Amino acid sequence: MAKRSFSLSHFSSFFLPRGDTLFYLIALFSILSLLLHHLSPVSAAENRHFEGFDADEVDDFAEPIDPIISSTPPPPLTTTLSVSDPVESHHGPPDPAPPVTSQPSDPKPASTSFDYWDEDEFEGIPQSLTSASPLITESVTATPTSSDSDPNLKSEPEPEPEIPKSISSYTVEIVCVSFLIMFVINYFTGKKENENLALAWASKFATKDSIFEKNFSLLGVGETDDSPLLLKEGQNVFKFYASGRRFCQGLLATMELKSRHDLISRLYNMVVPCKDEITFEVYMNDDAMDHVVLAVARKKLAKTMQKEITDLQRFASLVSPPSGRKWVAEELAVVSESKEVAGDMINETVLDQVFGDKAYEKFGKGFISVHFSDQHLGSHKKMLIFKFALPDAKNMADMTRLVALVPYYIDLVGRYKLSSHARTKTDGARTKIAQEIYKELQNARQEALQRKKAEQRKKIEEAEAKLSAEALRKKEAKERARQMKKAMPKMKMTRAG
């Protein structure tokens, strides 16, 4: 019992100290708390080099840095650990920890603060420690005085000053707009010019007391007096119709003018000039025109017409100038079916009016061609065709003699009759041409029939190629039986008497 009581009192005195023991324990705890208080900033800065230590945690401990800092770096920070003087006791104060200094410029800082650490307890401790906070030092030294260059702030690029564009930079647009304006202006002006030209011709030759008003009873496209004289089929195409005259069913005049409303065509006509033309087509009655095939034109154009126009190619040929009489000007050539027709159509009157040397030099500037034919291809077979060039609107009277040829030749051709000798020749030529045409039609029909048979034969062969062997065998047997039956002699059955 005595031993038991002794031990209990001993433990009770250890856990419940009294007097000097309690005082020493309080002093010891205060020293340890001061030591830990001074070591906590240094250890937090150094522990960021430990394995698994996040750099963001160091930033949490560090104080925020003011972005506006002078460009000169601050002096290196020095950290010194000091311990307050503890209350003296007979045990004596513990050895103070050596001071810890952190120099950013030292390549190998002192590691006295880690002398008390067990190497086995902490892993990943670097052998040579760098500056305590190199990131902070760099940011402080690299931070300019202005807050605009803060790396954490995204500076917006300053807008570049707008440079005014010069007129030369809009060259393409100016050219396009100018061309469009010119095109529109030229369209209306060219359209007006063509209309004025057509009206100038109509007022000269189709109004009251004019040539056509004296020779035709009905002018214009209508049946009344108020009907318009011209029919506009396009910006450069105008037509005039007249009827009510003997020997012909009617007359159609077509004016094909320059495309003045089209700027591109106008520019092209400046390089390749062309003329305003008018063509008169006279539809003769069937009983009012004999065998007449004749053409008068400039030499080059006459040769072209003789090669390209079908009726001139079949019936007519170039006529040499006759001896002992006047003939057309040297610039002109005559293509006719016979010399008799050419002599009768090119008489003294027309030579003096237009086709003679002197008259053609003065009045024949607008003459292009004349073509008479009773074998014309088309819906109407017997026709007289006159083609002239139109002068300017102010000089429309210059073509008066050319227009006067139209009614004159209507009467001349309508009354003309060939001689028996000339008719025999023309009839023989027409019969020969008719036979040739008939042969050509027969050959064309034969070729069409042969082509059709070949197509049918090809279809049958293709169908047979698709048949099976059995069907083909049956067909061959059927064809063989038909051939045998055809080869057997025919027997005639007669009745017994």
From TrEMBL:
InterPro entries, per database record: CCDC47
Residue ranges, compositional bias (Polar residues): 102-114, 140-150
Signal peptide: none
Domain of life: Eukaryota
Keywords, alphabetical: Membrane, Transmembrane, Transmembrane helix
Biased composition (Basic residues): 483-497
Subcellular location: Membrane
Record's keyword annotation contains Transmembrane: yes
One Pfam family from the record: CCDC47
BP GO annotations: endoplasmic reticulum calcium ion homeostasis
Mode of membrane association: Single-pass membrane protein
GO CC annotation, single: endoplasmic reticulum
Annotated region (Disordered), positions in chain: 64-115, 140-164, 469-497
Record-level Gene Ontology MF annotations: calcium ion binding
Entry keyword Transmembrane helix: yes
Residue ranges with Basic and acidic residues bias: 469-482
Protein name from the UniProt record: Uncharacterized protein At5g49945
Protein's organism: Nicotiana tabacum (Common tobacco)
Taxonomic lineage from the root: Eukaryota, Viridiplantae, Streptophyta, Embryophyta, Tracheophyta
